[in-house]
Amino acid sequence: MNALNKKITKETATPRPPVVAVMGHIDHGKTTLLDYIRKTVVAEKEAGGITQHVSAYEVNHKTAEGVLKRITFLDTPGHEAFAGIRSRGAQVADIAVLVVSGEDGVKPQTVEAFKFITESKLPFIVAITKIDKPSASVERAKQSLTEHEIYVEGYGGEAPCVAISAVSGEGVNELLDMILLVADIENIKGNLGKPAEGVVLEATRSKEKGISATLIIKDGSLKQGMAIVSGEAVSPLRSMENFLGKNIETSGPGSAVRVVGWDNMPEAGKQFLSFPTKKEAEKYFEERVLLPRKARQVKNLSDLRVAIPAVIKADVSGTLEAIEYEIKKLATESVFIKVVKDGTGDINESDVRIGSGNGGPIVFGFNVKIDSAAKNLAERDDVKIELFDIIYKLVERAKEIIAERTPKIEVTEVRGKAKIIRLFSIVKDKQVIGGKVLEGAIGLGDEFKIMRRLAEVGVGKIRELEQQKVKTSEIAVGREFGALVDARIEIAPGDVLESFVIVKK
Predict the structure, then answer these.
(1) Measured at the alpha carbon of residue 498, what is the angle toward residues 497 and 500, in degrees to the nearest 5?
(2) Which end of the chain is more exposed for a tag (fewer CB within 10 A), N or C?
(3) Which residues in 90-150 belong to E strands, given as ranges?
(4) What is the distance between the alpha carbons of residues 491 and 457, in angstroms, rounded to a whole number?
(5) Each residue of 302-355: pLDDT tens digit?
(6) Cα separation of 292 and 354, whole Å?
(7) Domain residue ranges of the chain, discontinuous segments joined by +
(8) Which strand ranges, in their side-by-side order, compose the sheet holding 161-163?
(9) pLDDT in tens, 59-77
(10) Number of CB atoms found within 10 A of residue 400's CB
(11) Sequence-distant (≥ 6) Cβ neighbours of residue 309 within 8 angstroms
(12) Residues near 42 by Cβ (< 8 Å), separated by ≥ 6?
């Protein structure tokens, strides 16, 4: 490793702002809390009443001692369809705030968020929200946490717990103080004297600016004139904005910045590294990205499942990642959705053209439009485009398509088993037999296998069926019967008839 990636020494490392992920159930007050802290409104602008994008915000908080300190917040979506983004939020963060409603207590997404927190080994604080509500109970919420093995101070654990109201602001200052206290205890530090490294939070594409990405700097400094590499994307650092959209020339550890001018779309959740010069960045890219990629270009022929091609376009890369994460989980043993193209921005002719050449493709758009040329081409080539503004509806539709396109195979299912007690008569292929049903049931018209000492020796069909000399359509388990059957093999006492049906699955 070169000197750019050397470990931080105690002499050069200094305390930096903590990066905090606010996590929890969909309607337990995460966004309301952040709205109160940063004095802006987000929730009303989002489709379906949920925060669709991971974003980063920096706030300055004056401690009880009067010292002004900075905290960077990640606003992680709460809907279950955003497990991938929420997981990334936990990996990016230094500290987590797990919000739990004082009214409702722990919900499934609370448990899911806690799982991400523990897997990422993050220190965390529990914020019990909505304490301004008449039905809220802090003690009941703590008890609910304990029942789900989430232990806070005073209830068998060490996790700090703060009761807050994001409406009145009660307890919010105490929560911010607690975040800074945990940051001090965890000794969160960064080195201003080295090139920055961190994580890509989200990326977008626009006609005006091209590709831009929001980055969280975990260590080091970014300055104009440097260059950045993330996965297969490279950007010379010509323009950089802070979280307010203002142009800045330099930024340090713990900050959220937006960088414009990438040659490819960086992948949300990927690490980035920075280099003093573009030449050094290109050398790293050649050695660490291009060469390994060429070595991996061997086609894998082992996957014989049916692939349903899909083109997916979304407004931002964070949402795109969430969609692909959920669609990947829908794969079955026989069918999966293969994304042949993805990206941000409106659906264009190129998207439709790729779709039309892949045999029965899906073209999904999320919070995007279809340009007129693409619409005309789709109508001409009979390519169906489906648009959504709620992710779980898109995922439900993808699930329906997988079910529709799953190949149907014929499966033989055993309906019942009967032991033959006596052969009464036989005329050519017609045989009159008597027996007793051992399992399930046998019915008029059933086909059956003749099993003799566990081996199949022939097949037949039930033409007539009687119970106590009365004709019937079905004989249940434990009952004796008489039957007229068609079978080319002579049925003998002791044989077992396996009645079966052929179903498509």
Answers:
(1) 140
(2) N
(3) 95-101, 124-129
(4) 10
(5) 455 788 889 999 998 888 888 998 998 898 878 889 888 898 889 998 888 875
(6) 27
(7) 15-188, 197-294, 306-405, 410-504
(8) 55-62, 68-75, 19-24, 95-101, 124-129, 161-163
(9) 888 888 888 999 999 876 6
(10) 10
(11) 337, 338, 340, 355, 358, 359, 360, 361, 362
(12) 31, 34, 35, 51, 75
Q: Tokens at residue 316, please?
A: 């931002």
Element (H, E) at 160: none
Q: Which residue has the tokens 């990422």?
A: 120
Residues of the chain with pLDDT under 70: 1-12, 40-54, 76-90, 293-304, 355-360, 505
pLDDT given for residue 43 in this prediction: 42
Per CATH, the number for 306-405 is 3.40.50.10050
- 15-188 — its CATH code? 3.40.50.300
Q: Of the candidates 214, 274, 250, 259, which has an alpha carbon nearest to the alpha carbon of residue 5?
A: 274
DSSP string, 232-250: TEEEE-SEEEETTS-B-SE
Q: What are phi and psi of 59, to 5 degrees?
A: -130, 150
The whole-angstrom separation of Cα 193 and Cα 190 is 9
Q: How many CB atoms neighbour CB 176 within 10 A?
A: 20
Q: The domain 197-294: what is its CATH number? A: 2.40.30.10
At residue 452, what is the residue type?
A: R
Q: Which CATH number describes the domain made up of 410-504?
A: 2.40.30.10
Q: What Cα–Cα distance (Å) separates residue 185 from each residue in 181, 190, 251, 287?
A: 6, 15, 24, 39
Q: Tell me what pLDDT residue 53 has.
A: 54
